[in-house]
């Protein structure tokens, strides 16, 4: 059945209306904070701050830029692996991230940064948090990749950011849980949010676009760009909003080590699981990152270097096995079609990260942290609260995903027919002579062009 | 008509002579400044500077590296979109940028950094300014992409950098205008410089290479690498040489927001302008960056967060419409062949940026900036001088472009015939073509697959 | 002859055993140092350090991330140039680097960072040094690219890191030589280590896989990603562990200038050496980096800006000529098959760097450096020790390479048959249909190739 995928009205309408709404809301609510305002110089004198370097900008900006690259190039290129959905992978990632960061600045601002004068005062830390918030929605996109319209993605992001800000408020502010790298708040929530949406939007006839679900040689190389920038900059991700000084320093070391261990275990499991021991690019592109996800909650803790290696070691074993056994099982039995396998890369490692965080926090002692160190790292001993935070993240993902999935099921969003999934032809002007190139893999390309809407 | 495109003598000659000239001139003029010299430690004590961190290196280096990536990967890959000119796009960008930064260190040095002893004293800020200076020439290259020889590009760069240093001196030193991100000095000048050259070098029979003027699927994905690194690092571009402390901090926030708004409006206009609402990669690759260009002059000002969103919103609408209507019109009517559409990405948003800067400066008040803040941000109230700066930039672009265009029209530079434009075959040893390769490797792959172990 | 390349047992075994060994050894030996430990706050008070910014993290982290990108994206993508070995190029680079950094933290820790309590205390500087150490092995991989199994690469890395730590200890600790960017310690050692291994593993019948030894159009563009990230971030590489303040600042300037000069000379030699003056991507991808290699030892010295230009100028001439004349000669006469031409990019420029360092150190004078500057830069005047260091690096490369080559010659490592070298099919699940995809940009490319000038 050919669906109407013409988004000529709906996409521009959504983009314009929401962008104008952002402008108005920013006009009413958002201002510079005292470190990004010209009055900083007076602030410095008042607070008796000796140097401009004490401006938080110099503590956070390099990490912010690394996180920024992860969001746009990392997530974007990781989703270019499909043979004919690279435009959609990197392009729609670009669109929803650019919208999401604006909405996140407002939502997180209202919950965390509201000043006495009713204004949201922003600085570089807000930009990092906005990128973090958007990451949850990009993870969710991974489950839906190739099966939804850009309009649906804008809706997914609008609600995703909203839900994120609320669960983040509950977990960090009310439960006083720690989650600097967002194993719970970002990865667990984002993954269950996306998986539930994908479950609601289940497509029984998706096999009609089976010929487009694989990769080609060069699209796999493009995806490695995403993988590597995520892998390299993950230490910045887990340390970007950690405490100044030893906090950021330690978070980097822990994440760096966890990721290093992930690579070896991923290669091992990938090889042992294949006939003839050949490596599978899907595993290398994804499971090598599991250690970063799993270190998100405990990154700042005194988990010790070898503890970090163990976290990376275990999470990647589980993640790789997930790609081999769980993904097919989930599609067949649970009716969850998870294009990028986010359950293996974000859900399971995220839950592991939450548990690791809870255990490490519960077992934190003054002998290890030192008296002041213990106070700085934890507001108070909080193993139980950490665990509670994990459940909040899962709950928000499942319930939120069900609601939003229901909304996205409405037949008004211009999503593609089962036969046209994973195909850039539906939403993009694809250069002509390449489809001839692709002809072999594309009996349906012409069909796509012959569709009522195309 | 087949032209002689053999550059075996001319290109090496130019590269050698100019590189040796650089070595001699650096020997005569260029030295380390007190922050990069071993005497820094004495300087520190004299100036009573408490820590090595006060060395400007630590304020500027992370931003410098981001700018450096924009120049070589950003501009370079943005120009790989043509189906058979990716080598020339990224390769010649590499060549002229590497020459340009050397010449820029000298030219800018003579105008801005000449010490009492007649030496140019350089530090990290000079490296940033050299990258900025080169950006103007890379923008100009965008208009000529695929139609000029590398020798012509070296000439374009030699004069481009020279002109840049002079107009920059007039605008910043004589007119005391502010332009930290170079909306006027870099983008407006560079764009009109390149467009005028392209107009002088008009090729009536260019349609003979029409079959090579498009992109292919993967070349569009390569171009997205350029787009994203430009987009992500633009906040560093507009803040790299801004004032320490709140200046850099605010420039980052303003640019980040303008760019975010640009993405939504670009997607909206791109979709609404196409039959069936399909998105055009040309727009996504370029117009999403207009906000960064337009925020170059006012980046440091108290333009407010929503003001930044408005700047990005408007500049991308104009930029995208430019690609749809203006580029074809300019080619047909004005005889300006603008390969990358720099008029839409740099000229118009650059002018907008200049105007925005003038208005913001004119309306700057002590109530908003604070007494000291006003003094720090502006040497004095300068709306009119800002506007004057814009005209200087345009004038230098037009006049300089006409002169250099005339020089480049001489039949001695080895430029390609109309039928051979946009073709790497002319200046590069291109690997025996892809398909034969793939074919030849084909049997052997089967063989590989048929091997006992495989 | 078809060999057994099934690594389904050996690769997972090696990965698991070594990763578990790492976990145990880290558990016994590795701890946080006082700057990454929660007791940092107490340390700060004791040492009377005024701000968290004095934590070495803020001096080193941005440079570390740049180096990290060079190791994984730079080296990785530089090795994607082969038409059918991109997975192996970037993938195996990823595997051995991730293992190598763990082993390097231990080996370098035992030699340099062992605390009184018998523990290795790590911080960000250790992470940088681990990346440096691994670089030596990745250089060696370049000589063997496409001809060895991942298991052999793991062995190459295990011994390579071990040898590196010892020679580094001798050169830096015993000889008190300076080598912040590793011209000797990293590049010279790594190159001769790899070349000797490649010589021991000489394959007389390698021509059987000749059809896979070239690049294709897009694989050359992928390789440019590696080239550019190496080129752009090399100033960070040579300054990452330089002295705080002017040391890092000067190292950046010197490297930046040397690299700029390298580009022009590489283009010149490449063009002049080819019939019709066409440029060769192999030269552009590699020889443009020679200046960074050659500036590794003297990066911190007062070599002067024009001195840096001269270093880049000369090293790239030699490097490019190496690709043109030496590589074929070495393969034919010396029986050394150097896939990536590391002899031209790392061995010769590395030796040049060592010599430049020795001369600059020998001629260092108080008049140039200032009294304190001279003491800070050199522990003592050390021209002769620098030269000695160079010989140590070469000796370790040759002897170590011979030993390890002998081990790798054993018929147990699953290396490919001569006919299957440079083919991802051997160790990777390669997507089926790429060649068919490519079938049809063919006609138009023929047309392009049929043009008078090509």
UniProtKB/TrEMBL annotation, chains A, B, C:
Any one GO BP annotation for this protein: ammonium homeostasis
Pfam family of the protein (one): Ammonium_transp
Gene Ontology terms: cellular component: plasma membrane
Top-level taxon in the UniProt lineage: Eukaryota
Keywords annotated in UniProt: Ammonia transport, Cell membrane, Glycoprotein, Membrane, Transmembrane, Transmembrane helix, Transport
GO MF annotations in UniProt: ammonium channel activity
Principal location listed in the UniProt entry: membrane
InterPro entries per record: Ammonium/urea_transptr (IPR029020), NH4_transpt_AmtB-like_dom (IPR024041), RhesusRHD (IPR002229)
Compartment annotation: Cell membrane
Family annotation (SUPFAM superfamilies): Ammonium transporter
Membrane topology label: Multi-pass membrane protein
Residues annotated as domain Ammonium transporter AmtB-like: 55-413
Residue intervals passing through the bilayer: 9-30, 63-82, 94-114, 126-146, 153-172, 184-202, 214-233, 253-272, 284-303, 309-326, 347-365, 385-408
Function: Functions as an ammonia transporter. May play a role in the elimination of ammonia in the gill.
Subunit structure: Homotrimer.
Protein family according to the UniProt entry: Belongs to the ammonium transporter (TC 2.A.49) family. Rh subfamily.
Full protein name: Ammonium transporter AmtB-like domain-containing protein
UniProt source species: Cyprinus carpio (Common carp)
Protein's gene: LOC109111418
């Amino acid at each position: 059945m050919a669906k109407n995928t013409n988004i000529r009205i709906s996409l521009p309408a959504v983009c314009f209306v929401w962008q104008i709404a952002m402008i108005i809301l920013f006009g009413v609510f958002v201002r510079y904070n005292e470190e990004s305002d010209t009055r900083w110089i007076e602030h410095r004198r008042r607070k008796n701050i000796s140097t401009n370097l004490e401006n938080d900008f110099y503590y956070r900006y390099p990490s912010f830029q690394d996180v920024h690259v992860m969001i746009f190039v990392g997530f974007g290129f990781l989703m270019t692996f499909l043979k004919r959905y690279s435009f959609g992978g990197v392009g729609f990632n670009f669109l929803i991230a650019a919208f999401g960061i604006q909405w996140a600045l407002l939502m997180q601002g209202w919950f965390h940064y509201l000043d006495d004068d009713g204004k949201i005062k922003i600085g570089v830390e807000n930009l990092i948090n906005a990128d973090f918030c958007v990451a949850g929605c990009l993870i969710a996109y991974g489950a839906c990749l190739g099966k939804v319209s850009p309009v649906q993605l804008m809706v997914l992001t609008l609600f995703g950011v909203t839900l994120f800000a609320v669960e983040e408020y509950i977990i960090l502010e009310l439960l006083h849980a720690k989650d600097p790298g967002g194993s719970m708040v970002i990865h667990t929530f984002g993954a269950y949010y996306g998986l539930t949406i994908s479950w609601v939007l289940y497509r029984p006839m998706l096999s009609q676009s089976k010929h487009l679900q694989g990769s080609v040689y060069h699209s796999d190389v493009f995806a490695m760009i995403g993988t590597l920038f995520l892998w390299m900059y993950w230490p910045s991700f887990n340390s970007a909003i950690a405490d100044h000084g030893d906090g950021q320093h330690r978070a980097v070391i822990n994440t760096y080590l966890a990721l290093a261990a992930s690579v070896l275990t991923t290669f091992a499991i990938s090889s042992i699981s294949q006939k003839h021991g050949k490596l599978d690019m899907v595993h290398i592109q994804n499971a090598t990152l599991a250690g970063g996800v799993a270190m998100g909650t405990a990154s700042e803790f005194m988990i010790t270097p070898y503890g970090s290696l163990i976290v990376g070691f275990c999470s990647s074993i589980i993640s790789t096995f997930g790609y081999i056994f769980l993904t097919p099982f989930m599609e067949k039995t649970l009716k969850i079609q998870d294009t990028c396998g986010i359950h293996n890369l974000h859900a399971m490692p995220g839950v592991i990260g939450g548990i690791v965080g809870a255990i490490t926090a519960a077992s934190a002692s003054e002998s290890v942290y030192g008296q002041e160190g213990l106070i700085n790292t934890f507001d108070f001993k909080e193993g139980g609260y950490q665990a509670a935070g994990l459940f909040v993240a899962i709950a928000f993902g499942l319930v939120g995903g069900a609601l939003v999935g229901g909304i996205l099921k409405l037949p008004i969003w211009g999503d593609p027919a089962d036969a046209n999934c994973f195909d850039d032809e539906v939403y993009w002007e694809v250069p002509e002579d390449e489809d001839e190139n692709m002809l072999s893999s594309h009996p349906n390309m012409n069909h796509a062009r012959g569709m009522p809407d195309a």
